[in-house]
Amino acid sequence: xxxxxxxxxxxxxxxxxxxxxxxxxxxxxxxxxxxxxxxxxxxxxxxxxxxxxxxxxxxxxxxxxxxxxxxxxxxxxxxxxxxxxxxxxxxxxxxxxxxxxxxxxxxxxxxxxxxxxxxxxxxxxxxxxxxxxxxxxxxxxxxxxxxxxxxxxxxxxxxxxxxxxxxxxxxxxxxxxxxx
Length: 180
Hints:
The chain is mainly α. It contains 7 helices and no strands. It has helices at 9-17, 24-42, 56-63, 70-90, 97-103, 110-119, 133-174. The chain starts with 8 loop residues before the first helix and ends in a 6-residue tail after the last helix. The relative contact order is 0.07.
């Protein structure tokens, strides 16, 4: 039943696969955490847990040197930002001791978070300011696209022209359209 209250798929999976509590202290800690979330909500404080996405596979891929696409990078950035926001919302509060205790096991690299926050421009694309080499790469991509478009156009014109000439010759040889 508790899994149905989760706002993330990762949280739902964790709750669905979690073994039942065997110790009273674990049950009390769970209820204390839920009560702290409710109290925060009553104070108008919303923890952005819905922004925390399951990026475990992405982190593993990046750790092996694989390249992440733009949407994957954005997911990582949003997740790190949400986790940092949660840490800041809980920092120094006396009314969220259980949540703070749970969150203390999450080790965020602030430099990685700052790098992600600087990585995207206002349009949501990778920032040329942060990655100046992108400007040259984007120009080269535009040039390659133009060359491909030109080549395809010339190929079409050549094929179309060749087919048209063959049809015209066939019509002349066979006496025009009436033969069809």
